[in-house]
Amino acid sequence: MTRVTTKIPFSAIRFINDIPRLPDLQERLAQKLCGLRIEPDNPEAVRMNVAMTPRSYPEISEADAGKIRRRAILYLERLRSSTGIEHLSQRDRAMLAPLQGGLPIARIVSEHEADEIAAALHAEMPWMASATNLVWHGLRASARASLPGLRFDPLVLVGSPGIGKSFWARRLAYHLEVPTATIDATGEPAAFSLVGAQRGWGSASTGKLIQTALRERRAGPIVIVDEVEKSGSVQSTRGTLHTLAEALLPLLERMTAKNWECPYYQIRLDMSWVNWVLTANSLKGMLDPLLSRCVVLDLPELAVLQLLNFIEAQGTKRNLPKAAIDATSDAVSRSMAASSTPSLRTVSRMLDRVEFLVQKPVLQ
Fold first, then answer.
1. Using CA atoms, how far apart are residues 302 and 157, in angstroms rounded to an integer?
2. Contact assessment for residue 155 and residue 297, using Cβ atoms and an 8 Å cutoff
């Protein structure tokens, strides 16, 4: 099904597509002044004045022209200032064009719809029941309140590597039909990758939050931050430290996220409909202010039966032959019997390989 959407303003930017040129505005003001000076009982002169220019009309003095120019400049300055993007280059203004008129966000129409989404997700990954349950209640609450979008509490999923924390988040986004943005907290300057870097930095750029909105032309993505406990910090040439936690704190609070300012574009955006899934292998190194804004869930290890059921379900979904599914299950069972439990990530790669081999043409 196609998820119902609602359009929200998303930004306070005012797009004005036809800002007049200064000479054109001066001419219009001069003609207006000429019209005001013509006798009201001479309609023919008023009509003829429309085609006149400041140069052809003798009553426009140098003092008049100076006043007209000053007023025209002041008007254009106020007009450009009202857009909220007067400080940006023409290229950056063009990049923000998709925000004109607002952006759509997915919404949950009924509690029954929330039930169906949660049931489908649980059927795929039953060992993630605690996370699915929390999201389920958030979706039902969104439907009951008739919210324009969907919300659930920010999550910190804590568990061993490879049990499917990030995979679960991507499957959730699939069922909700919302975009995703993924941040690898260990492999990139996570704070800048998420929110961007302001002008003045050598690496000034937009972050994935605004990139996702502009690329997908949708608000309210699910943002996945992998291994958040391992995120480091970035130090500026002035000695200022920028951490991922520092970037996340205002975004995890709905009130402050509603008027979040993009460091690169320096405009305010409504990020209050973003939903957050943070993953961690442990809570060591995570700050209390960050944890206090999230629901922390400790996830169990994967059991043999759960892995085998996952192989069966995914293999059937990929239309793999039963013999190929059984062979994959046997390989996983032998590995676990030898006290070497493969991760969900490994199993997914195995299924990818099997799918490739099944579809590979056979030379005659």
1. 14
2. yes
**Considering the domain 103-298 in this protein, what is its CATH number?**
3.40.50.300
Strand-pair partners of 225: 183, 278
How far is CA 344 from each of CA 66, 167, 220, 308, 333, rounded to the nearest angstrom? 74, 9, 28, 10, 13
What DSSP assignment string belongs to 244-300? Answer: HHHHHHHHHSHHHHTTEEPTTT--EE--TT-EEEEEES-STT--HHHHTTSEEEEPP
CA angle 104–109–111, rounded 5-degree value = 140
Centre a 10 Å sphere on the Cβ of residue 129 and count the other Cβ atoms it contains: 15
Tokens encoding 104: 């759509």
How many Cα neighbours within 13 Å face the side chain of 86?
A: 10
Helices and strands of the chain, counted as H and E runs: 15, 13
Output the pTM of the full model. 0.80
All structural domains of the chain with their residue ranges: 22-81, 103-298, 304-359
The DSSP secondary-structure symbol of 4 reads P
Element (H, E) at 138: helix 129-144
Round to whole Å and give the CA distance between 110 and 166.
27
User: How many residues are listed for the chain in this entry?
Assistant: 364
Please list the rounded mean pLDDT of every run of 10 residues in the chain (364 residues): 86 75 79 71 50 51 82 74 78 89 95 96 94 97 96 96 94 96 82 79 79 95 93 55 84 95 92 96 89 95 86 89 89 81 85 86 58
- Give the bridge partners for 38, in sequence order: none
In sequence order, which residues have a C-beta less than 8 Å from that of residue 255 and are 6 or more positions away? 272
Q: What is the pLDDT of residue 193?
A: 87
Asked whether the beta carbons of 342 and 335 are under 8 A apart, the reply is: yes
